[in-house]
Amino acid sequence: MPIILRVLLTLLGGWFFKLPSHLRALLVIVLIVGFSMAVLAVQHIDLEVGGARFERGSDNLLGLRLGLDLAGGVHLVYQAGSEDVKPTADQMKGLLTNIRRRVDSLGASEPNIQQLGEDRVLIQLPGLEDVDRAKRLIGQTAQLRIVERVCQDAACTQFEDRDTGLSGEDIASANAGQGTVGEPILLFELKRGAARAFAELTTRIFNSNPDSPDQLAYVLDEITLVSATVRSPILAGSGQISGGFTPEEVRDLAIQIESGRLPIPISVLTEKVVDASLGSSSLRDSLIAGIVGLALVLFFMVSYYRGSGIVAALALFIYTTLVLAVFKLMPVTLTLAGVAGFVLSMGMAVDANILIFERMKEELRIGRTLNFALRIGFQRAWSSIRDGNISTLIIAFIIYWFGNQFAASTVTSFAVTLIVGVFLSMFTAIFITRNLLQLLAVTAMRRMPGLFTPEPLPKREEGSPRPRPASEQGA
Predict the structure, then answer these.
(1) Which CATH number fits the domain that encloses residue 186?
(2) pLDDT of amino acid 126
(3) How many domains does the chain have?
Protein backbone atom coordinates (compact mmCIF):
# COMPACT_ATOMS: atom_id res chain seq x y z
CA MET A 1 0.00 0.00 0.00
CA PRO A 2 2.75 2.60 0.75
CA ILE A 3 4.36 1.90 -2.67
CA ILE A 4 1.02 2.32 -4.46
CA LEU A 5 0.38 5.50 -2.51
CA ARG A 6 3.80 6.91 -3.42
CA VAL A 7 3.25 6.12 -7.11
CA LEU A 8 -0.19 7.73 -7.01
CA LEU A 9 1.16 10.88 -5.35
CA THR A 10 3.98 11.06 -7.92
CA LEU A 11 1.51 10.85 -10.81
CA LEU A 12 -0.80 13.42 -9.25
CA GLY A 13 2.13 15.71 -8.51
CA GLY A 14 3.34 15.54 -12.11
CA TRP A 15 -0.16 16.23 -13.40
CA PHE A 16 -0.62 19.10 -10.94
CA PHE A 17 2.54 20.97 -11.96
CA LYS A 18 1.68 20.65 -15.66
CA LEU A 19 -1.46 22.73 -15.11
CA PRO A 20 -1.41 26.48 -15.79
CA SER A 21 -0.62 28.55 -12.70
CA HIS A 22 -4.12 29.99 -12.37
CA LEU A 23 -5.69 26.51 -12.48
CA ARG A 24 -3.21 25.22 -9.88
CA ALA A 25 -4.15 28.11 -7.60
CA LEU A 26 -7.86 27.41 -8.15
CA LEU A 27 -7.37 23.75 -7.26
CA VAL A 28 -5.52 24.68 -4.05
CA ILE A 29 -8.33 27.08 -3.09
CA VAL A 30 -10.94 24.36 -3.68
CA LEU A 31 -8.97 21.92 -1.52
CA ILE A 32 -8.62 24.49 1.28
CA VAL A 33 -12.33 25.30 1.24
CA GLY A 34 -13.29 21.63 1.08
CA PHE A 35 -11.05 20.73 4.01
CA SER A 36 -12.35 23.66 6.10
CA MET A 37 -15.98 22.77 5.44
CA ALA A 38 -15.31 19.12 6.26
CA VAL A 39 -13.77 20.13 9.60
CA LEU A 40 -16.82 22.23 10.46
CA ALA A 41 -19.28 19.59 9.24
CA VAL A 42 -17.96 16.92 11.62
CA GLN A 43 -19.18 17.69 15.13
CA HIS A 44 -16.55 15.57 16.91
CA ILE A 45 -13.12 14.76 15.44
CA ASP A 46 -11.39 11.71 16.90
CA LEU A 47 -8.26 10.54 15.05
CA GLU A 48 -5.15 8.59 15.91
CA VAL A 49 -2.08 10.03 14.15
CA GLY A 50 1.34 8.45 14.66
CA GLY A 51 0.24 6.81 17.90
CA ALA A 52 -1.06 10.12 19.28
CA ARG A 53 -4.76 10.76 19.71
CA PHE A 54 -6.23 13.91 18.15
CA GLU A 55 -9.61 14.91 19.57
CA ARG A 56 -11.45 18.10 18.71
CA GLY A 57 -15.04 19.31 18.68
CA SER A 58 -17.85 19.71 21.18
CA ASP A 59 -21.63 19.61 21.40
CA ASN A 60 -21.83 23.34 20.63
CA LEU A 61 -22.45 25.06 17.30
CA LEU A 62 -20.14 23.61 14.58
CA GLY A 63 -18.25 21.75 17.30
CA LEU A 64 -16.57 24.98 18.47
CA ARG A 65 -15.41 25.41 22.05
CA LEU A 66 -17.45 28.18 23.70
CA GLY A 67 -16.38 30.20 26.72
CA LEU A 68 -18.42 30.68 29.85
CA ASP A 69 -20.08 33.89 28.72
CA LEU A 70 -21.55 31.98 25.74
CA ALA A 71 -22.11 28.53 27.27
CA GLY A 72 -22.59 29.36 30.97
CA GLY A 73 -20.61 27.75 33.80
CA VAL A 74 -18.10 28.36 36.60
CA HIS A 75 -14.93 30.49 36.38
CA LEU A 76 -12.30 30.07 39.10
CA VAL A 77 -8.78 31.44 39.54
CA TYR A 78 -6.59 29.90 42.26
CA GLN A 79 -3.42 31.19 43.89
CA ALA A 80 -0.94 28.39 44.63
CA GLY A 81 1.25 28.59 47.72
CA SER A 82 1.49 31.75 49.82
CA GLU A 83 3.60 34.87 50.23
CA ASP A 84 6.22 32.89 52.13
CA VAL A 85 6.07 29.66 50.13
CA LYS A 86 6.36 29.87 46.35
CA PRO A 87 5.54 26.73 44.35
CA THR A 88 8.19 25.08 42.21
CA ALA A 89 7.65 24.13 38.58
CA ASP A 90 7.28 20.45 39.56
CA GLN A 91 4.70 21.33 42.22
CA MET A 92 2.66 23.36 39.72
CA LYS A 93 2.82 20.48 37.24
CA GLY A 94 1.60 18.04 39.88
CA LEU A 95 -1.11 20.48 40.95
CA LEU A 96 -2.46 20.81 37.40
CA THR A 97 -2.43 17.02 36.96
CA ASN A 98 -4.33 16.52 40.22
CA ILE A 99 -6.90 19.21 39.43
CA ARG A 100 -7.46 17.81 35.92
CA ARG A 101 -8.10 14.38 37.44
CA ARG A 102 -10.72 15.82 39.78
CA VAL A 103 -12.37 17.97 37.13
CA ASP A 104 -12.56 15.08 34.66
CA SER A 105 -14.39 13.03 37.29
CA LEU A 106 -16.74 15.96 37.87
CA GLY A 107 -18.24 15.50 34.41
CA ALA A 108 -17.91 19.10 33.14
CA SER A 109 -17.99 19.35 29.33
CA GLU A 110 -14.86 20.81 27.68
CA PRO A 111 -13.17 22.09 30.90
CA ASN A 112 -10.37 24.63 30.49
CA ILE A 113 -7.51 24.26 33.00
CA GLN A 114 -4.30 26.19 32.50
CA GLN A 115 -1.44 27.76 34.43
CA LEU A 116 -1.28 31.55 34.60
CA GLY A 117 2.14 32.97 35.27
CA GLU A 118 4.21 31.07 37.82
CA ASP A 119 1.72 30.46 40.63
CA ARG A 120 -1.86 30.79 39.43
CA VAL A 121 -4.34 28.33 37.94
CA LEU A 122 -7.34 29.18 35.76
CA ILE A 123 -10.26 26.73 35.80
CA GLN A 124 -13.34 27.14 33.59
CA LEU A 125 -16.14 24.61 33.80
CA PRO A 126 -18.81 25.16 31.11
CA GLY A 127 -22.27 23.82 31.93
CA LEU A 128 -21.64 23.72 35.71
CA GLU A 129 -23.41 26.26 37.94
CA ASP A 130 -22.75 24.97 41.49
CA VAL A 131 -19.66 27.02 42.35
CA ASP A 132 -19.55 25.81 45.96
CA ARG A 133 -19.38 22.18 44.88
CA ALA A 134 -16.68 23.00 42.33
CA LYS A 135 -14.56 24.79 44.95
CA ARG A 136 -15.07 22.00 47.47
CA LEU A 137 -14.09 19.34 44.99
CA ILE A 138 -11.09 21.16 43.52
CA GLY A 139 -9.59 22.96 46.48
CA GLN A 140 -10.17 20.58 49.39
CA THR A 141 -8.39 17.32 50.03
CA ALA A 142 -10.29 14.48 51.66
CA GLN A 143 -8.01 13.36 54.52
CA LEU A 144 -9.31 9.88 55.26
CA ARG A 145 -7.76 7.88 58.10
CA ILE A 146 -8.49 4.29 59.13
CA VAL A 147 -8.03 4.03 62.91
CA GLU A 148 -8.32 1.35 65.54
CA ARG A 149 -10.83 2.47 68.17
CA VAL A 150 -10.02 0.84 71.53
CA CYS A 151 -13.24 0.86 73.57
CA GLN A 152 -13.24 1.36 77.37
CA ASP A 153 -16.81 0.08 77.89
CA ALA A 154 -19.32 -2.17 76.16
CA ALA A 155 -21.17 0.72 74.50
CA CYS A 156 -17.84 2.26 73.41
CA THR A 157 -18.85 5.68 74.76
CA GLN A 158 -15.31 6.06 76.02
CA PHE A 159 -12.55 5.11 73.66
CA GLU A 160 -9.01 5.78 72.51
CA ASP A 161 -8.09 6.03 68.82
CA ARG A 162 -4.83 4.45 67.74
CA ASP A 163 -3.16 5.31 64.47
CA THR A 164 -2.86 2.34 62.14
CA GLY A 165 -0.77 4.02 59.45
CA LEU A 166 -3.56 3.47 56.91
CA SER A 167 -5.02 6.51 55.12
CA GLY A 168 -6.67 7.57 51.90
CA GLU A 169 -3.30 7.42 50.14
CA ASP A 170 -3.35 3.63 50.61
CA ILE A 171 -6.60 3.31 48.64
CA ALA A 172 -6.12 2.09 45.07
CA SER A 173 -9.67 2.85 43.91
CA ALA A 174 -12.81 4.37 45.40
CA ASN A 175 -16.28 4.31 43.88
CA ALA A 176 -19.80 5.28 44.80
CA GLY A 177 -22.16 2.35 45.35
CA GLN A 178 -25.32 1.24 47.13
CA GLY A 179 -25.78 -0.81 50.28
CA THR A 180 -28.17 -3.68 50.90
CA VAL A 181 -31.14 -1.34 51.36
CA GLY A 182 -30.12 1.09 48.59
CA GLU A 183 -28.32 3.66 50.76
CA PRO A 184 -25.32 5.43 49.17
CA ILE A 185 -22.00 3.93 50.31
CA LEU A 186 -18.33 4.28 49.41
CA LEU A 187 -16.66 1.15 48.07
CA PHE A 188 -12.87 1.00 48.15
CA GLU A 189 -9.96 -1.29 47.42
CA LEU A 190 -6.58 -0.99 49.10
CA LYS A 191 -3.16 -1.23 47.53
CA ARG A 192 -1.36 -4.55 47.88
CA GLY A 193 0.87 -3.65 50.84
CA ALA A 194 -1.93 -1.82 52.63
CA ALA A 195 -4.32 -4.75 52.07
CA ARG A 196 -2.00 -7.01 54.06
CA ALA A 197 -1.82 -4.51 56.93
CA PHE A 198 -5.62 -4.07 56.79
CA ALA A 199 -6.12 -7.86 57.05
CA GLU A 200 -3.87 -8.01 60.12
CA LEU A 201 -5.69 -5.03 61.67
CA THR A 202 -9.18 -6.48 61.19
CA THR A 203 -8.00 -9.87 62.49
CA ARG A 204 -6.61 -8.27 65.63
CA ILE A 205 -9.80 -6.25 66.23
CA PHE A 206 -11.93 -9.35 65.66
CA ASN A 207 -9.94 -11.23 68.32
CA SER A 208 -10.12 -8.35 70.85
CA ASN A 209 -11.86 -8.43 74.27
CA PRO A 210 -15.39 -9.92 73.74
CA ASP A 211 -16.83 -7.88 76.65
CA SER A 212 -15.82 -4.55 75.12
CA PRO A 213 -14.76 -5.28 71.56
CA ASP A 214 -12.64 -2.73 69.74
CA GLN A 215 -13.97 -1.08 66.59
CA LEU A 216 -12.75 -0.05 63.17
CA ALA A 217 -13.34 3.65 62.51
CA TYR A 218 -13.13 5.73 59.33
CA VAL A 219 -12.29 9.38 60.08
CA LEU A 220 -12.61 11.99 57.32
CA ASP A 221 -11.09 15.42 58.04
CA GLU A 222 -11.26 14.64 61.80
CA ILE A 223 -14.96 13.71 61.55
CA THR A 224 -15.90 10.08 62.24
CA LEU A 225 -17.91 8.76 59.33
CA VAL A 226 -18.59 5.32 60.75
CA SER A 227 -17.30 3.19 63.61
CA ALA A 228 -18.33 -0.45 63.85
CA THR A 229 -17.23 -3.78 65.22
CA VAL A 230 -15.50 -6.24 62.95
CA ARG A 231 -17.70 -9.32 62.55
CA SER A 232 -15.03 -11.21 60.61
CA PRO A 233 -11.48 -10.50 59.40
CA ILE A 234 -11.36 -8.67 56.06
CA LEU A 235 -8.71 -10.46 54.03
CA ALA A 236 -9.56 -9.37 50.48
CA GLY A 237 -8.28 -5.78 50.86
CA SER A 238 -11.64 -4.16 50.08
CA GLY A 239 -14.33 -2.58 52.18
CA GLN A 240 -17.20 -0.14 52.31
CA ILE A 241 -18.02 3.02 54.26
CA SER A 242 -21.54 4.21 55.03
CA GLY A 243 -22.27 7.43 56.85
CA GLY A 244 -25.63 8.89 55.84
CA PHE A 245 -24.28 10.23 52.54
CA THR A 246 -26.32 11.67 49.71
CA PRO A 247 -25.52 10.26 46.23
CA GLU A 248 -23.70 13.49 45.28
CA GLU A 249 -21.67 13.52 48.50
CA VAL A 250 -20.49 9.95 48.08
CA ARG A 251 -19.46 10.64 44.45
CA ASP A 252 -17.48 13.73 45.47
CA LEU A 253 -15.87 11.82 48.34
CA ALA A 254 -14.77 9.05 45.96
CA ILE A 255 -13.24 11.63 43.60
CA GLN A 256 -11.35 13.40 46.39
CA ILE A 257 -10.00 10.21 47.95
CA GLU A 258 -8.95 8.66 44.67
CA SER A 259 -7.26 11.83 43.31
CA GLY A 260 -5.09 12.12 46.39
CA ARG A 261 -3.67 15.11 48.20
CA LEU A 262 -2.82 18.39 46.48
CA PRO A 263 0.97 18.92 46.36
CA ILE A 264 0.63 22.53 47.55
CA PRO A 265 -2.20 24.51 49.17
CA ILE A 266 -4.32 26.74 46.94
CA SER A 267 -6.72 29.59 47.64
CA VAL A 268 -9.48 31.15 45.53
CA LEU A 269 -8.65 34.55 44.02
CA THR A 270 -11.62 34.96 41.65
CA GLU A 271 -14.92 33.14 41.28
CA LYS A 272 -17.74 33.81 38.84
CA VAL A 273 -20.86 31.97 37.72
CA VAL A 274 -22.55 32.61 34.36
CA ASP A 275 -26.11 31.35 33.99
CA ALA A 276 -26.63 28.99 31.06
CA SER A 277 -29.68 30.90 29.81
CA LEU A 278 -27.64 34.13 29.78
CA GLY A 279 -24.91 32.34 27.82
CA SER A 280 -27.33 31.03 25.18
CA SER A 281 -28.85 34.50 24.85
CA SER A 282 -25.38 36.01 24.36
CA LEU A 283 -24.58 33.39 21.71
CA ARG A 284 -27.80 34.12 19.83
CA ASP A 285 -27.20 37.87 19.92
CA SER A 286 -23.59 37.38 18.76
CA LEU A 287 -24.71 35.27 15.80
CA ILE A 288 -27.34 37.84 14.80
CA ALA A 289 -24.82 40.69 15.06
CA GLY A 290 -22.24 38.76 13.05
CA ILE A 291 -24.68 37.82 10.27
CA VAL A 292 -26.04 41.37 9.99
CA GLY A 293 -22.53 42.85 9.94
CA LEU A 294 -21.37 40.38 7.31
CA ALA A 295 -24.41 41.05 5.14
CA LEU A 296 -23.86 44.84 5.29
CA VAL A 297 -20.19 44.48 4.39
CA LEU A 298 -20.99 42.18 1.46
CA PHE A 299 -23.71 44.56 0.22
CA PHE A 300 -21.29 47.50 0.29
CA MET A 301 -18.51 45.61 -1.49
CA VAL A 302 -20.72 44.26 -4.26
CA SER A 303 -22.67 47.49 -4.83
CA TYR A 304 -19.58 49.73 -4.92
CA TYR A 305 -16.77 47.61 -6.38
CA ARG A 306 -19.04 45.52 -8.64
CA GLY A 307 -17.08 42.59 -10.11
CA SER A 308 -14.20 43.01 -7.68
CA GLY A 309 -16.73 43.20 -4.87
CA ILE A 310 -18.22 39.85 -5.87
CA VAL A 311 -14.75 38.32 -5.73
CA ALA A 312 -14.15 39.95 -2.34
CA ALA A 313 -17.47 38.58 -1.07
CA LEU A 314 -16.48 35.07 -2.15
CA ALA A 315 -13.05 35.53 -0.55
CA LEU A 316 -14.69 36.73 2.67
CA PHE A 317 -16.87 33.62 2.76
CA ILE A 318 -13.76 31.47 2.30
CA TYR A 319 -11.98 33.48 4.99
CA THR A 320 -14.84 32.95 7.46
CA THR A 321 -14.90 29.20 6.81
CA LEU A 322 -11.12 28.95 7.14
CA VAL A 323 -10.98 30.94 10.39
CA LEU A 324 -13.73 28.90 12.05
CA ALA A 325 -11.98 25.67 11.01
CA VAL A 326 -8.70 26.89 12.55
CA PHE A 327 -10.56 27.91 15.73
CA LYS A 328 -11.90 24.36 15.98
CA LEU A 329 -8.58 22.63 15.27
CA MET A 330 -6.36 24.69 17.60
CA PRO A 331 -8.78 24.77 19.56
CA VAL A 332 -9.72 28.36 20.49
CA THR A 333 -12.20 29.00 23.29
CA LEU A 334 -14.62 31.58 21.91
CA THR A 335 -15.95 34.21 24.30
CA LEU A 336 -17.94 37.36 23.56
CA ALA A 337 -14.66 39.25 23.38
CA GLY A 338 -13.30 36.55 21.08
CA VAL A 339 -16.27 36.99 18.75
CA ALA A 340 -15.51 40.73 18.73
CA GLY A 341 -11.90 39.97 17.75
CA PHE A 342 -13.13 37.70 14.96
CA VAL A 343 -15.51 40.36 13.61
CA LEU A 344 -12.69 42.95 13.79
CA SER A 345 -10.41 40.66 11.80
CA MET A 346 -13.17 40.31 9.18
CA GLY A 347 -13.17 44.09 8.86
CA MET A 348 -9.40 44.04 8.37
CA ALA A 349 -9.76 41.39 5.66
CA VAL A 350 -12.21 43.66 3.84
CA ASP A 351 -9.89 46.63 4.38
CA ALA A 352 -7.05 44.78 2.64
CA ASN A 353 -9.30 44.16 -0.36
CA ILE A 354 -10.31 47.82 -0.47
CA LEU A 355 -6.66 48.90 -0.59
CA ILE A 356 -6.04 46.52 -3.48
CA PHE A 357 -9.14 47.59 -5.40
CA GLU A 358 -8.35 51.29 -5.01
CA ARG A 359 -4.87 50.75 -6.47
CA MET A 360 -6.43 48.72 -9.30
CA LYS A 361 -8.89 51.54 -9.93
CA GLU A 362 -6.05 54.01 -10.50
CA GLU A 363 -4.42 51.72 -13.04
CA LEU A 364 -7.65 50.99 -14.89
CA ARG A 365 -8.37 54.72 -15.01
CA ILE A 366 -5.29 55.29 -17.19
CA GLY A 367 -6.17 52.48 -19.55
CA ARG A 368 -4.19 49.56 -18.19
CA THR A 369 -5.35 46.06 -18.93
CA LEU A 370 -7.13 44.17 -16.17
CA ASN A 371 -4.24 41.72 -15.69
CA PHE A 372 -1.64 44.50 -15.52
CA ALA A 373 -3.80 46.64 -13.21
CA LEU A 374 -4.25 43.63 -10.96
CA ARG A 375 -0.52 42.95 -10.72
CA ILE A 376 0.44 46.58 -10.08
CA GLY A 377 -2.46 47.09 -7.69
CA PHE A 378 -1.33 44.21 -5.49
CA GLN A 379 2.29 45.36 -5.55
CA ARG A 380 1.43 48.89 -4.46
CA ALA A 381 -1.14 47.83 -1.84
CA TRP A 382 1.04 45.16 -0.24
CA SER A 383 3.24 47.55 1.78
CA SER A 384 0.18 49.22 3.33
CA ILE A 385 -1.46 45.87 4.08
CA ARG A 386 1.75 44.48 5.57
CA ASP A 387 2.48 47.48 7.80
CA GLY A 388 -1.08 47.78 9.04
CA ASN A 389 -1.35 44.10 9.91
CA ILE A 390 2.06 43.97 11.59
CA SER A 391 1.06 46.92 13.79
CA THR A 392 -2.17 45.14 14.72
CA LEU A 393 -0.31 41.90 15.49
CA ILE A 394 2.11 43.71 17.81
CA ILE A 395 -0.79 45.17 19.77
CA ALA A 396 -2.61 41.81 19.79
CA PHE A 397 0.43 40.00 21.22
CA ILE A 398 0.74 42.65 23.95
CA ILE A 399 -2.97 42.22 24.79
CA TYR A 400 -2.47 38.45 24.92
CA TRP A 401 0.45 38.82 27.33
CA PHE A 402 -1.55 41.06 29.68
CA GLY A 403 -4.57 38.76 29.55
CA ASN A 404 -2.40 35.74 30.32
CA GLN A 405 -0.61 37.46 33.20
CA PHE A 406 -3.72 38.80 34.90
CA ALA A 407 -6.01 35.78 34.37
CA ALA A 408 -8.35 37.73 32.08
CA SER A 409 -9.61 34.94 29.83
CA THR A 410 -11.90 37.25 27.85
CA VAL A 411 -8.94 39.51 26.99
CA THR A 412 -6.86 36.47 26.01
CA SER A 413 -9.67 35.15 23.80
CA PHE A 414 -9.95 38.53 22.04
CA ALA A 415 -6.20 38.58 21.37
CA VAL A 416 -6.05 34.98 20.10
CA THR A 417 -8.98 35.36 17.68
CA LEU A 418 -7.55 38.67 16.44
CA ILE A 419 -4.08 37.16 15.86
CA VAL A 420 -5.47 34.17 13.98
CA GLY A 421 -7.82 36.40 12.00
CA VAL A 422 -5.10 38.86 10.97
CA PHE A 423 -2.76 36.12 9.74
CA LEU A 424 -5.53 34.49 7.72
CA SER A 425 -6.79 37.83 6.39
CA MET A 426 -3.35 38.47 4.87
CA PHE A 427 -3.37 34.96 3.39
CA THR A 428 -6.87 35.49 2.00
CA ALA A 429 -6.06 38.87 0.43
CA ILE A 430 -2.71 37.92 -1.07
CA PHE A 431 -3.48 34.37 -2.19
CA ILE A 432 -7.21 33.79 -2.54
CA THR A 433 -8.49 37.20 -3.71
CA ARG A 434 -5.51 37.68 -5.98
CA ASN A 435 -5.79 34.29 -7.66
CA LEU A 436 -9.55 34.57 -8.10
CA LEU A 437 -9.09 37.92 -9.85
CA GLN A 438 -6.25 36.53 -11.98
CA LEU A 439 -8.53 33.68 -12.99
CA LEU A 440 -11.09 36.22 -14.24
CA ALA A 441 -8.33 38.18 -15.98
CA VAL A 442 -7.64 35.25 -18.34
CA THR A 443 -11.32 34.86 -19.29
CA ALA A 444 -13.47 36.95 -21.60
CA MET A 445 -14.13 39.33 -18.71
CA ARG A 446 -10.69 40.85 -19.25
CA ARG A 447 -12.26 42.83 -22.11
CA MET A 448 -14.69 44.46 -19.66
CA PRO A 449 -12.46 46.30 -17.15
CA GLY A 450 -15.35 48.61 -16.29
CA LEU A 451 -16.87 45.76 -14.25
CA PHE A 452 -13.94 45.90 -11.83
CA THR A 453 -13.94 49.59 -10.91
CA PRO A 454 -16.61 51.74 -9.24
CA GLU A 455 -15.86 54.65 -11.59
CA PRO A 456 -16.73 54.87 -15.28
CA LEU A 457 -13.61 54.57 -17.39
CA PRO A 458 -12.94 57.63 -19.60
CA LYS A 459 -12.80 57.08 -23.34
CA ARG A 460 -9.34 57.91 -24.59
CA GLU A 461 -9.02 59.39 -28.07
CA GLU A 462 -6.47 57.86 -30.38
CA GLY A 463 -3.06 59.45 -30.05
CA SER A 464 -3.87 61.31 -26.81
CA PRO A 465 -1.40 60.87 -23.94
CA ARG A 466 -2.34 58.60 -21.06
CA PRO A 467 -3.11 60.46 -17.83
CA ARG A 468 -0.96 59.65 -14.81
CA PRO A 469 -2.46 57.90 -11.75
CA ALA A 470 -3.69 60.17 -8.99
CA SER A 471 -0.96 58.80 -6.70
CA GLU A 472 1.73 60.11 -9.11
CA GLN A 473 0.27 63.56 -9.72
CA GLY A 474 2.07 66.41 -8.10
CA ALA A 475 5.31 64.43 -7.84
Answers:
(1) 3.30.1360.200
(2) 77
(3) 3
